[in-house]
């Protein structure tokens, strides 16, 4: 007994010493209960996914480097996972929450995510990643504040609001999933939502003369949107963790999976104003509204909705090119963002990715460089860790488009840790694409119509393009990015069009370090769920 007490005392003392010496960052704890519940977003009763009874789910508010301990209790009747759009999980793809990295949380069970928002600021969101659950809700906003001593390039706003926008379907997610499983194309959406509500269903209250921050994310399934506010201008200040040049816009395109922060000053006469979201590149054009309510207003919304673009690609492309990095502003660290001279680094490798919509075995699929991704019952990250053969092979997707028919494959591309790469997304189709890369941010150095060639590099912005994690590719066009592979792990590269992602327009990038060191990657979590061919194995004792 005495030896046990001494051992416990030593362990506790060691814990206190490590915590003190390391200056450990703060912890924030969340307990979430995930359930089905009745929702009426478009006036029709549906079965939605609620988090702690809320639709959308609760907003996560935290500060750079905070540790987030999120205990998720799955009270659905089917497996469930949450993923964190834009959170980089430094050295920790174990927490990414996708089928390639994590086993699903079984019905009636819980799993605790241990995340750190290391060296990040800005606006992001979380969402359910399996089984078309995203079509039922389960999403919410993430706001990462700068640390108190880090300068922010604008005065503190009087208030901070998250607006989760996007398309919505009146059919339940099980019906939409069945459509895709039968190999059919996805139907058109029935409407648009702002924070889970339809026409004028949501209100933001402001005081006249004050300035507010709006964090706007497109959490929809398939549709680009345009956001605008009747009678007001928007000053763009942040995009997915990057402070931007503070350009002013009257309307802002936001593609699927993207997030923007704008400042809006309540500088108009005291009344209520429309906040408008409309669909882009769709026929018919869908529209919904929320209300910007002045606290001293006695007059409701009135008048015509402000103009917004519909199918104008050149307008959207011009706006995208106008979004620039604020070189003198601090990011999550005190040094200016522009101190990282990405344009002076020569890429060691060029990867060209072409999306397509093939028919395979008589069924609609979507592919990248001819390969339509097929998920496995054993997460790739676990197969890699336990060295389980027959799950995937590195190099099962090409670095560039090749001829021939499309095929099904669990596609994984290999890459070296600390490499610097150029990735070109090539879209030969007639619809806008939206691409996301987990675990990283990247510099959108160029985008244009037509075929990408080596000569296209002459038009790259190598000085002040924005760094972000989700980018659009216009029809019959290309988008080029530069990216530092500074995060070891198994990382998903995917279409943010959720039907295309579900039917194969995705793959995994295995960023590998031979060092096998905690310096490069954290060990498998002790509480990691094990499934498939990893079931029955052991994580680690400590």
Automatic annotation (TrEMBL):
Leader sequence residues: 1-23
Coiled-coil ranges (or none): none
Keywords: Signal
Domain of life: Eukaryota
Molecular functions per Gene Ontology: copper ion binding; oxidoreductase activity
Domain Plastocyanin-like: 34-147, 160-297, 378-512
InterPro entries: Cu-oxidase-like_N, Cu-oxidase_2nd, Cu-oxidase_C, Cu-oxidase_fam, Cupredoxin, CuRO_1_AAO-like, CuRO_3_AO-like
Protein family according to the UniProt entry: Belongs to the multicopper oxidase family.
Annotated protein name in UniProt: L-ascorbate oxidase homolog
């Amino acid at each position: 007994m005495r030896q046990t007490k001494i051992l416990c005392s030593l362990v506790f003392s060691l814990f206190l010493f490590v915590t003190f010496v390391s200056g450990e960052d703060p912890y924030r704890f969340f307990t979430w209960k995930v359930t089905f519940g009745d929702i009426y977003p478009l006036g029709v009763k549906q079965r939605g996914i609620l988090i702690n009874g809320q639709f959308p789910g609760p907003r996560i508010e935290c500060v750079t480097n905070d540790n987030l301990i999120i205990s998720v209790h799955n009270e659905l009747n089917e497996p469930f996972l949450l993923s964190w759009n834009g959170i980089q999980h430094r050295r920790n793809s174990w927490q990414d929450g996708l089928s390639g990295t994590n086993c699903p949380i079984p019905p009636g069970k819980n799993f605790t995510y241990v995340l750190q928002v290391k060296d990040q600021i800005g606006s992001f969101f979380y969402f359910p990643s399996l089984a078309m659950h995203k079509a039922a809700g389960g999403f919410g906003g993430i706001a990462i504040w700068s640390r108190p001593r880090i300068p922010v390039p604008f005065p503190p706003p009087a208030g901070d609001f998250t607006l989760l926008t996007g398309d919505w379907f009146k059919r339940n997610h099980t019906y939409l999933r069945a459509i895709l499983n039968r190999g059919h194309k996805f139907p058109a959406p029935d409407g648009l939502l702002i924070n889970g509500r339809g026409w004028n269903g949501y209100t933001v209250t402001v005081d006249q003369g004050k300035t507010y921050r709006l964090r706007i994310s497109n959490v929809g399934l398939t549709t680009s949107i345009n956001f605008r506010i009747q009678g007001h201008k928007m000053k763009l200040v942040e995009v997915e963790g990057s402070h931007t040049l503070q350009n002013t816009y009257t309307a802002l395109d936001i593609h699927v999976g993207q997030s923007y922060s704008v400042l809006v000053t309540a500088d108009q006469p005291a009344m209520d104003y429309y906040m408008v979201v409309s669909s882009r590149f769709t026929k018919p054009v869908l529209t919904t509204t929320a209300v910007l309510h002045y606290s001293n207003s006695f007059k409701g919304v009135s008048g015509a909705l402000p103009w917004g673009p519909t199918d104008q690609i050149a307008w959207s492309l011009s706006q995208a090119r106008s979004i620039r990095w604020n070189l003198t502003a601090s990011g999550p660290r005190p040094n200016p963002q522009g101190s990282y001279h990405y344009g002076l680094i020569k890429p060691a490798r060029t990867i060209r990715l072409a999306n397509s919509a093939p028919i395979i075995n008589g069924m609609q699929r979507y592919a990248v460089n001819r390969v339509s991704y097929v998920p496995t019952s054993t997460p790739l990250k676990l197969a890699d860790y336990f060295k389980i053969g027959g799950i995937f092979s590195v190099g099962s997707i090409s670095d560039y488009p090749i001829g021939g028919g499309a095929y099904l494959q669990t596609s994984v591309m290999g890459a070296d840790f600390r490499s610097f790469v150029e990735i070109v997304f090539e879209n030969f189709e007639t619809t806008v694409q939206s691409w996301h890369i987990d675990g990283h941010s990247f510099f959108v150095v160029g985008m244009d119509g037509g075929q990408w060639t080596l000569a296209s590099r002459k038009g790259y912005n190598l000085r002040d393009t924005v760094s972000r994690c989700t980018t659009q590719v216009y029809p019959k066009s290309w988008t080029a990015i530069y990216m530092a592979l500074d995060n070891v792990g198994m990382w998903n590269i995917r279409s943010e069009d959720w039907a295309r992602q579900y039917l194969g327009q995705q793959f995994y990038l295995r960023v590998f370090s031979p060092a096998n060191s905690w310096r490069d990657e954290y060990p498998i979590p002790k509480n990691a769920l094990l499934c498939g061919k990893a079931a029955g194995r052991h994580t680690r004792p400590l």
